[in-house]
Amino acid sequence: MNLPGGVRCIYCGVALPAVLDFDLSPPPSVSAARTPTGANLQQPARRTGLVGFLAFLLFKFKMLFALLKFGKIMITLGSMLVFIKAESYLFGWQLAVGFGLSIFVHEMGHVVVNWRKGLKQSAPVFIPFAGAVIFLKNFPDDPTIQSESGAGGPVAGGLAALVCLLIGLSTHSPYWFALAYLGFFINLFNLIPFPPLDGSHIASVFSRRYGARFSSPCCSGR
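The structure corresponding to this sequence follows.
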């Protein structure tokens, strides 16, 4: 209350200071304890940045690995399309497609066996008018593994030809009979023990000397 002599309390009449200075900020010690320093703020930021950078690198490596695998698939599919196009001039596109798929099954037989044996291999590559080939980076010294690797293709290709024959018997379609004939012929031809045919790898189980002579770092599908 404003009275003569200065500002007084309205209840008790005590004179108040002329200037009221109310400092609502906490003491310096309390303020320093509650407010984090610049170093404390930078540590979580640095940790978060490091985690984000590592996650980014991991994502990049995964993408690169996926692209490499996709590149291998594209090599196989691209060479297969070229093979089918070339073979279509001899057999027509329908039989060429079936023939290309039969050889693909043959090569995947090699791929599965090599993968189970831990052998590093290339993607199947089709060669027009010749077949397909898979390259092994390190051909095994074990004749049993050599033989199994060589036999994987003819076994898978023979089963594919058998399926074509059964479909032909049930449908009486000349197309499936022709495809079965080509499949059986190619896979039996591959059993000849002469490089780079699969028979040369299969024969290694019968004689180490024979296997060392005819072993080759590739498996031909035709």
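DSSP finds seven helices and five strands in the chain.
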